[in-house]
Here is the input.
Amino acid sequence: MGDHMKLVAAPRSWPLPRKGRKWVMKPSPGPHSKETSLPLLVVVRDILHLAENAKEARYIINKGNILVDGVVRKDPKFPVGFFDVITIPKIDARYRVLIDHTGRLRLVSEPSSENLTKLYRVQNKTIVKKGRIQLNLHDGTNILVEDQNIKPGDSLLLELPEKKILGHVPLKQGVLALITGGQHAGELSRVREIRVIRSPMRNVVLLEGFETVIDYVFPVGTDEPLIEIPPLKEEVSE
Here is the structure.
């Protein structure tokens, strides 16, 4: 069962009932970790209910019917994670992966007629050949930019699949942020203060009524989010 794991051992972020099935597919190594992603087969069969079993889900995926961030994905184990956009042209459907207040990943439907965009958090910034700036984004994507003002912790709105920059949200006081982990996962709140901890511990961000580590703070806009982020309620029973 190398490609599978016991369902009871699946990450808490997976929006699956823990009863009724013993095994579930593991996501393959890729742009997201196991804790922050779902295998594409699980999305097709268990979340979107486009197939009744794994065989049907594999058929749908292998036929190239599922796009993730504008790219056809045929690997049933491909990891689909936070802010990824799933498009299914045959049924004119599009879904964005968000996170609810329990820390579970959720797929939210959105109009397929709108331009395909995605928010990315900048994880790292490096200088490559010829002095060009490379940004390493939260899902493993790397892009080259000329803007020296973009820093780790900031967010970028990119048009897909070209990865053209449409917007930049710096991590600073006053911006609106989505919390991606901890007790306040799924909440939108404004940044009040960024506290730099001069130790091996992670920096802390003070928001409206609570604080959290900087790794959980995902800037999404200045006045309003650059993408629609509806309030999400828990729907999964144990």
About this structure: The chain is about 5% helix and 35% strand. Residues 117-169 form a domain with the OB fold (Dihydrolipoamide Acetyltransferase, E2P) fold (CATH 2.40.50.740). Helices lie at 40-47, 54-62.
